[in-house]
Design goal:
The protein is of the alpha+beta class. Helices cover 61% and strands 14% of the residues. The strands form 2 sheets. A 5-stranded mixed beta sheet has the order 2-4-5-7-6. It has a two-stranded antiparallel sheet with strand order 1-3. β4 (245-253) and β5 form a beta hairpin.
Length: 338
């Protein structure tokens, strides 16, 4: 709280005080008051006014300085009331009570909004599970009647299924901690499930699928990790080259972590797009020009990895390759719980 700005805010009161002091001095002069008495009285009024202004400034500055300092230190600004001492002046009480009512109103509105969001999420999850039933039925019908249904029809159904999965995991990504269980999982089983899920797309696109897992386990949530790797594999298929396509999944480990690498020799990612591939709704050059993309897949993957405590990064060279690197930390707590 700057003194000069405080004086400026109280300028009208100061002017009124000075005018009043001058009028009193003139009135005393009219009654033939000695000059020395007039001067002493005028000086007394000025000094008392300065003293009142200074005391008022010091009291207010102490409160507002504490308020601003505490506010600056807090990450969650709405907790500022918890850091303030009991108000001692009427003005401080008005401010503290106002902040209390504002916080109370904010919390009530947040609760209403959170309930609406949770209701919507619940509806979406129920809808997704209901939608998956006819999708599974259509996939089964296509497999049982290959002469009736063209391969492209089945491909579109699988694409729809993957898009629905993307919606489901995006909806759940805000509250993953309520849904995931970190355990020591079998990477071979995870990769096997993903390869089976994508078997038809891999065969139809003549993609060579290679697996070399030197590290066979990692600490993660099996369901969420399968979704993450499946999304990466789908991207590799989507952005493959026209011929001699390869997807490799390799794993290794060191003292601190397990590393899983997913490599493809597809069209790659332009260098200018690499820094933004995890941004929400970022489609990049490939997503606009070559394959229509929502730009949400990698954003969701990054979000889930952050929640699970995994590091994810991407290396790529345009028209040469793309490599997605997942890093899993090691923790003996999980091994002891097995």
């Amino acid at each position: 709280m700057k003194f000069l700005k405080y004086v400026k805010d109280n300028l009208i009161g100061i002017v009124i005080y000075l005018v009043t002091a001058s009028l009193i001095a003139l009135m005393l002069a009219a009654f033939k008051t000695p000059s020395i008495a007039l001067i002493i009285t005028f000086i007394f009024f000025i000094l008392s006014g300065v003293l009142i202004l200074a005391i008022s400034y010091i009291r207010k500055n102490k409160f507002y300085k504490l308020f601003m300092d505490n506010l600056e230190k807090l990450d969650k600004k709405f907790l500022i009331l918890e850091t303030l001492p009991e108000p001692t002046t009427y003005e401080e009480k008005i401010m503290v009570n106002s902040l209390y009512e504002i916080n109370k109103s904010m919390i009530e509105n947040i609760k209403i909004s959170q309930k609406n969001i949770n209701d919507f999420k619940e509806f979406v999850e129920i809808w997704i599970h209901e939608a998956k039933i006819p999708i599974s039925s259509m996939v089964l019908k296509c497999h049982n009647n290959p002469e009736k249904y063209d391969k492209s029809f089945l491909s579109q159904i699988r694409r729809l299924d993957n898009n629905i999965d993307e919606i489901l995991y995006y909806v759940r990504s805000e509250d993953t901690e309520k849904d995931f269980i970190i355990t020591e999982i079998d990477l071979k089983e995870v990769v096997r499930n993903i390869s089976l899920k994508n078997k038809d797309d891999l065969l139809e696109n003549n993609i060579e699928f290679e697996v070399d897992l030197k590290a066979t386990s990692a600490n993660s949530d099996k369901k969420w990790l399968e979704f993450i790797i499946n999304q990466i594999i789908n991207n590799s298929i989507k952005y493959k080259k026209e011929s001699e396509s390869i997807i490799k999944i390799e794993s290794s480990e060191n003292k601190d972590k397990v590393i899983l690498e997913i490599y493809d020799n597809g069209i790659g990612i332009p260098e200018k797009d690499l820094k933004r591939v995890f941004d929400k709704s970022f489609t990049g050059t490939n997503g606009r020009d070559k394959v229509k993309s929502t730009g949400m897949g990698l954003y969701i993957i990054k979000k889930l990895c952050d929640k699970l405590g995994h590091n994810i990064s991407i290396e790529s060279k345009e028209n040469q390759y793309t490599k997605v690197i997942l890093e899993f930390g090691k923790n003996n707590i999980y091994k002891g719980a097995m």
